[in-house]
Specification:
By secondary structure, the chain is of the alpha/beta class. It is built from 10 helices and 13 strands. The strands form 3 sheets. The chain has a 5-stranded mixed beta sheet. It has a 5-stranded mixed beta sheet with strand order 10-9-11-8-12, sandwiched between helices. Helix 2 crosses helix 9 and helix 2 packs antiparallel against helix 10. The longest helix has 19 residues. The protein is globular, with a radius of gyration of 21 Å. The N terminus is likely disordered.
Length: 256
């Protein structure tokens, strides 16, 4: 009798849990809008880029309405937790530190991280004492420099990479650390980009740079995480992912 009651209780709990699963009719994506080619902001305030196209494609695959919410990087996770939107798709690296606060889908992109500097800068990456390195504040690049170089490097933090590029051009900093694609798009592929080059090591250590870029979701919304994971897989199987990526990248942005 006790075994039967226990089984009935477990079954009832499972049914209740299923009934409580949210039916997603609209998914709101938080996107930075300042990290081309993943996202940028047009003159009319609209957002464009790989992350925007991916968000729309994912919503179409999931058969839900899609809403794009612009959000500065500094507050991007707190705003997710405050329910300003339901998921973050903003070239965010999957790291153990971030996993303490949010859940992630599997990766949807993987890009190496590099330094960029003016040609002829002759930076000695074996001895960066006193070198001014620009990074976007609160990113994995910021943490990498802090953890590996401590106070020997003068880390200059910016709200956006555009601000860092401006100071690099004006000579206020010696180099910028960011993901290779953003540096290409933000500097090398623009007018005057021939004056700059990648320098130093290419960085991919998952301890700091994670397992690739994932979509962040609140921990309690595990059903949404599963739906997004399934949608990413479906877009790749149908070739839609590859079509979107080809608009922005000249290499396999998904990686192995």
């Amino acid at each position: 009798m006790k075994k039967w009651l226990l089984a009935a209780t477990i079954a009832a709990t499972a049914v209740t849990g299923m009934a409580q699963a949210k039916e997603w009719k609209t998914v709101r994506f938080g996107i930075e809008g300042a990290y081309p080619p993943f996202s940028w902001t047009e003159a009319d305030g609209s957002l464009k880029g790989f992350d925007v196209d991916m968000a729309n494609a994912l919503c179409e695959e999931m058969k839900v309405e899609c809403k794009i919410v612009p959000q500065d990087w500094d507050g991007i996770i707190p705003s997710l937790l405050a329910r300003k939107y339901d998921a973050i798709i903003a070239a965010m690296s999957i790291t153990e530190e971030r996993k303490k606060r949010v859940d992630f889908t599997g990766k949807y992109a993987l890009i190496p991280n590099n330094f960029i500097a003016k040609k002829g800068a002759n930076i000695d990456f074996d001895n960066l004492d006193g070198v001014k390195v620009g990074v976007q504040r609160a990113t994995t690049h910021d943490k990498y420099l802090t953890d590996n170089y401590g106070k020997s490097v003068e880390v200059v933090r910016y709200g956006s990479f555009d601000e860092a590029y401006l100071d690099l051009a004006n000579g206020r900093i010696a180099t910028v650390l960011g993901d290779a694609s953003a540096l290409e798009e933000g500097v090398l592929n623009k007018a005057g980009g021939e004056a700059y080059e990648f320098v130093g090591p290419s960085l991919t250590d998952p301890k700091w740079f994670g397992e690739g870029f994932g979509i962040a979701v609140r921990k309690q919304d595990k059903d949404l995480t599963k739906q997004l994971d399934a949608a990413i897989l479906a877009l790749r199987e149908k070739g839609i992912y590859q079509e979107i990526a080809a608009k922005y990248f000249n290499y396999d942005v998904y990686g192995q």
